[in-house]
Amino acid sequence: MFKKISTSNRINIGFALLVVFLLVLATNRIDKRHFETVQHSLSTVYKDRVVAQDYIYRMNTILHKKEIQLLYSNSTNGRNAMNKEFQTLMDVFSTTKLTLKESKVFESLKENFKKLKIKEQTSANKEVINYLESLRTDLNNLELIQVSESKQMTDIAQKSLNNNKLISQLEIGFLILVGVLFQFIIFYRVKKSKNE
Predict the structure, then answer these.
(1) What pLDDT does residue 57 have?
(2) What 3-state class would DSSP assign to 4?
(3) What is the rounded CA–CA span in Å between residue 84 and residue 62?
(4) Phi, then psi, of 151 in degrees rounded to 5
(5) Distance from CA of residue 193 to its chain's centroid?
């Protein structure tokens, strides 16, 4: 059967196969880009948002312990250990990817923590509690940013998956169309040559 196909038909068939190959290759590259976007979003959500949220939670826990200690005990035992742990958590938090807004709130947190340490040495418990509240406000703002950024990254990943799904459906439709056209060209040419 292939011996009966003319050179021009072979060129047409080869060209059609080349076009299909190039389209499949192009859509594969687009799919790869979408999957990389999703992978980056998921990695960022975990590494820079979920883990950061854990640090914020642990810092809030330390503030709560400090507040309880101030309200119910005159003892300063453990204050240095809690301050050191809080500082360590801030240092680790600073290694996550921070947005511009997050950086500003984090700078406020660091500044308020420095002031708290000074006030703990020199002031009454009531003034120290005011600084604890300032720190808690900063941490609450950081929590809100984490939630907002997580949602934004999840939305980006979902949009990329939706685009990938649409492209996949278009690929299937296009391949069906090319297959039908390819069959039409081959069988139409064969019938035409039989009639001659």
Answers:
(1) 93
(2) helix
(3) 10
(4) -65, -40
(5) 59
Query: Which two three-digit tokens encode residue 122?
Result: 């020199």
Enter the pTM of the model: 0.67
Long-range CB contact pairs, 60-69, < 8 A, 24+? 60/136, 60/139, 62/86, 62/89, 63/132, 63/135, 63/136, 63/139, 66/132, 67/129, 67/132
Residue 119 predicted with pLDDT over 80: yes
Pseudo-torsion of CA 157, 43, 94, 88, nearest 10°? 140
The number of beta carbons lying within 10 Å of the beta carbon of residue 127 is: 14
Buried b (16+ CB within 10 A) or exposed e, 19-40: eeeeeeeebeeeeeebeebbee
Number of H helices, E strands in the chain: 5, 0
